[in-house]
Amino acid sequence: xxxxxxLADLVKQAALNAQNAGxxxxxxxxxxxxxxxxxxxxxxYATSLPLKLAREAKRAPLQIAQTLAAHFPxxxxxxxxxxxxxxxxxxxxxDAWIAAQVDVIVAQSARFGTLEPARREKIQVEHxxxxxxxxxxxxxxxxxxxxxxxxxxxxxxxxxxxxxxxINDNGxxxxxxxxxxxxxxxxxxxxxxxxxxxxxxxxxxxxLGKAYxxxxxxxxxxxxREQAARALGRIGIExxxxxxxxxxxxxxxxxxxxxxxxxxxxxxxFAQVFDxxxxxxxxxxxxxxxxxxATELGLEKDxxxxxxxxxxxxxxxxxxxxxxxxxxxxxxVAVRGFDRAIYVWGADHHxxxxxxxxxxxxxxxxxxxxxxxxxxxxxxxxxxELVKMSKRTGEFVTLDELLDEVGADAVRFMLISQSxxxxxxxxxxxxxxxxxxxxxxxxxxxxxxxxxILRHAAEVGIASDAGDVALLRHPAELELIRxxxxxxxxxxxxxxxxxxxxxPHYAIELAGIFHAFYKQCRVVSTxxxxxxxxxxxxxxxxxxxxxxxxxxxxxxxxxxxxx
Length: 563
What we know:
The longest helix is centred in the middle third of the chain and has 26 residues, at 225-250. The chain has four domains: 2-93, 2-Layer Sandwich (Gyrase A, domain 2); 122-169 and 257-375, HUPs (Rossmann fold), CATH 3.40.50.620; 172-250, no CATH class; 436-554, Isoleucyl-tRNA Synthetase, Domain 1 (Orthogonal Bundle), CATH 1.10.730.10. It is of the alpha/beta class. Helix content is 49%, strand content 13%. It has a five-stranded parallel sheet with strand order 7-6-5-11-12, with helices on both faces. A four-stranded antiparallel sheet has the order 1-2-4-3. The model has no long low-confidence stretch (mean pLDDT 94).
């Protein structure tokens, strides 16, 4: 954010001033890291630079802090500077400067909060990517919410971002799915078929089997079973992918690219990567299978990359998930040249993560360009009681059912409301509540309330565009402006740490601070004596509304003007 870099330059200038005055010895000043103090009474910002300079300056950190404070250059943004133990420089912003930022925020409008990075990166966020063999469950919905919000944040941080869904359309799961569909299809036509041991037991396969019986009649009963099962498997995957796309779009999650795992093998890319690993001595044969020598790269055990033909007859089904991962990471970083490749995986894939990093290093890729985010799962509750089964099918609750129950806004907001390292307890009753207990309702209501205030002001003939923000001096006004000014910093933190949960936390806090401001400061007054302050406060309210709208947009949540 500009003010942080501005203050960092002022701190470095203070050090240079002190050196020129002989108060500090000559040395190069490193980056003056600017942070927010833990307590408001310690200022708006602070730097711990004196603690880092103690050895080089041969001074006590507190003495260095006092010296920097004494030689701090004058600036319109800064009201005062104080040294604090054990070696901090606390910086207090000017009330007049803070108030003036309202005009800046209003002018930037929807662009407020967007950043200009030192280096614009080409980043891919690959997320959801579930097996296309059935409907999405709630846990996969969290994947979609995390990935899409993170992509939005990185874009707001100034990067070029591509969103990708990796379709697992290769391997044995396709055959198992096809065999399951064939049996359900045949059973729907009155033929007695034994269900495969590794088949998909869910009601979804039964529904698809019935649909195909109606659509195709006995077409697939008139061809060899294996051929029919393969054909139905492919058709089934295409249908599931279309349904997944529709479900995700209901949640405002869209992708720039739907990438086929099968293409990695059909294009010959896997063969190239396979040969590269083999030339490095990282592949070997054992028990008629091909193994990846992961232990050579520091992992605990090796992993099968190509299964034995005595176990899997069809050659195109022998590659394991690892085989696809090997070719896919090469495709992302080496072929398509993403500066960063971000994966969003569920906790059940935690064991696969070290192998992807190991393969990347083995192929000569910079592992720093690869980031795998592991998120924890979702417990669905109703009134405090755990909900495990779908009322409709008697199986797991699908994401579509959750969207039907509580709506996309609540789903998106609540599924990113906690750190990805934490399991989420998603309470249906809370998500449906139209009260302060429901966090998304609380934030959306704040936006709608401001919209209502602005409409009322327009009806009584009070405009905000001519408001003089220099009149904003009340502590509640300044507190609200300070909160709004934190928004770009939240984007920076979330983008740097790849932690989308900072956004909903901030939105809830900003909504609360606005409500407190509204209680303490009358915004719309028709009294002639209050006309000027009303216009100024309306401009401030508009800035708060815009900031809430910007934050909600990054979360994929609506910003309603009425509720």
